[in-house]
Write a structure and sequence with these properties.
alpha/beta; TIM Barrel; 6-stranded parallel sheet; 3-stranded parallel sheet; 14 helices; 9 strands
C-alpha cells in the first residue's frame, strides 16, 4: 500500500514536527479547563488556549445540529437532495477534489499517522477540549464517537480549528449518522461491524468508510464490498497481533486497523505485525483524566503515542 502519497506523508512525519498546531502552547503549559454548565462551542484560533471549550455556537453549527437531530431521531428519510447538499458542502471546502482522490488522501493520512485517537465523553465540552489537547500534542488523525453528545458539532468545530488534521466519526451504525457526519465535514467513518449497505453506499463517496470485522472471512468480505481499510474489532479477542501477522503474511495488501483495549505498550507490536494504523482510546483519553478534565495528561499520552509511532517508522527506514 506504500504509494507515492504514502511515502510523502512518511517523509513529513519523519521530519519530527507536528503540522497541525505549531503555534499552540506545549502540553506542559496547559491550564485546567473550566467546567461549562451547558454545551456551548466556540471556535478558537490556532494560538488560543486549547482547553477553552465554551462560547456561542456558530450559525452553521446550529444548522448542522438541527439537521443532524432530524436524522438521528428518524423524523424523516434521507433524500437525493440530502446527498447533493452534502456533496456541495464538501466541494466548497475541498476545492472540487474528486471523491476517489479524497478517499485516497484519507487512507494515506491514516497510514502515515499510524495512530487514530478515539475520543468519547459524556459531554461535548469535554470531548472538544480533550480532542484539542491530543491534536495540539501531535495527533494527526482523530475520531469522535457517535455516542458522544453533540458529536457532529464537535467534529465540525475540530475540522474548522485543525484543517490539516484528519477528523472522523466513530461508532457509526446508521445512514443518518453517516449523513450527519458528512455535513460536519468528517473525512472518515468507522464502525464496529460491517453493514453491507453502508459499506457499498460509501465505496465511491467522499468519505472513507472503515467497517469492523473479527475474522479473516469477515475482513475479506468487507474489502470485496469496497472497504479500503477494515477495523479489526475487538482486536484482542479476534486474535490480536498473531491474527494480524498471519493475515499480513497471507494478504499483505489488506489494510487492517486494530481497535479496542490497545495500550501504548502494544502499539509497536501491532504496527510491526502489519497494522496500517491502530486505534487508541483510553490509552490516550484515560477515564480518570476525562473525569477530572485533566487535559495535560491527555496531551502527554498523545505525545507518547506519537513518539512510539515515530520510533517504529525510524526502525523501518534503517
Amino acid at each position: 500500500m506504500e504509494t507515492a502519497a504514502f511515502s510523502a506523508s512518511y517523509a513529513r512525519i519523519a521530519s519530527f514536527s507536528s503540522p497541525l498546531a505549531p503555534s499552540m502552547c506545549p502540553p506542559a503549559a496547559l491550564p485546567p479547563s473550566p467546567r461549562a454548565p451547558s454545551f456551548r462551542l466556540r471556535p478558537i484560533s490556532a494560538s488560543a488556549n486549547i482547553t477553552s471549550a465554551t462560547g456561542v455556537a456558530t450559525s452553521a453549527c446550529a444548522a448542522t445540529s438541527a439537521r443532524s437531530q432530524q436524522h438521528m431521531n428518524g423524523s424523516r428519510r434521507l433524500t437525493p437532495a440530502d446527498v447533493t447538499e452534502a456533496a456541495a458542502l464538501d466541494d466548497g471546502a475541498t476545492g472540487h477534489v474528486s471523491d476517489a482522490d479524497r478517499r485516497q488522501q484519507t487512507v494515506a493520512a491514516i497510514a502515515a499517522s499510524g495512530i487514530v485517537a478515539c475520543v468519547r465523553a459524556d459531554s461535548a465540552d469535554v470531548a472538544l477540549s480533550a480532542a484539542r489537547a491530543a491534536l495540539a500534542a501531535g495527533i494527526e488523525v482523530l475520531e469522535v464517537t457517535c455516542t458522544t453528545p453533540g458529536v457532529f458539532e464537535v467534529i465540525a468545530s475540530l475540522v474548522k480549528e485543525f484543517p490539516k488534521a484528519t477528523i472522523g466519526a466513530g461508532t457509526v451504525l446508521t445512514p443518518h449518522d453517516a449523513m450527519a457526519a458528512q455535513r460536519a465535514r468528517a473525512r472518515f467513518l468507522m464502525s464496529p461491524a460491517t453493514d453491507p449497505e453502508l459499506v457499498a453506499s460509501h465505496a465511491k463517496g467522499p468519505m472513507l468508510f472503515i467497517p469492523g470485522a473479527m475474522t479473516p472471512t469477515e475482513i475479506l468480505s468487507a474489502t470485496r464490498l469496497g472497504a479500503r481499510l477494515v477495523k479489526l474489532f475487538p482486536a484482542p479477542y479476534a486474535g490480536g497481533e498473531a491474527l494480524l501477522r498471519a493475515m499480513h503474511r497471507a494478504a499483505p495488501s489488506l489494510g487492517i486497523v486494530p481497535a479496542h483495549g490497545i495500550q501504548l505498550g502494544m502499539v509497536e507490536g501491532y504496527l510491526k505485525a502489519g497494522a496500517t494504523a491502530v486505534v487508541l482510546s483510553e490509552a490516550i483519553f484515560e477515564k480518570e483524566a476525562i473525569k477530572r478534565q485533566d487535559y495535560e495528561i491527555i496531551a502527554q499520552r498523545a505525545a507518547e503515542a506519537v513518539a512510539v509511532r515515530r520510533n517504529v517508522l525510524l526502525s523501518q527506514t534503517h
